[in-house]
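Shift notes (night). Ran Antirepressor protein C-terminal domain-containing protein while the centrifuge was going.
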Amino acid sequence: MTKQTTFSLTQAADLLHFSGGVQNFIFTLRTQRYLDKDLRPYQFCINAGWFVGDMHSLPDPRNFKRFTLIPSLTIRGLNYFDKKFNGNERIIPDLTDLNDLPY
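Came back to this:
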């Protein structure tokens, strides 16, 4: 059984029940200065342990010869944003079983 410790922005938006889905989640993270215009997390977010330092790449939907770098959230980041945006005091489990996720 594999345990998940990082989450894509899509997974995070779903787990946080973020209104407007992943697009609005990314927009909010950018406007509140957690991500820069290239979707890179600011260093203070990495230092706080909210985002993983390295990013994975996906093909750019507008130009398939380019790639877009996408950050991943840690469990700590997921809990931080849950408290910030939802006001929840609940703690998302430290190790979420992949079999329990809807993807």
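The longest helix spans residues 75-86. Residues 3-96 form one domain.
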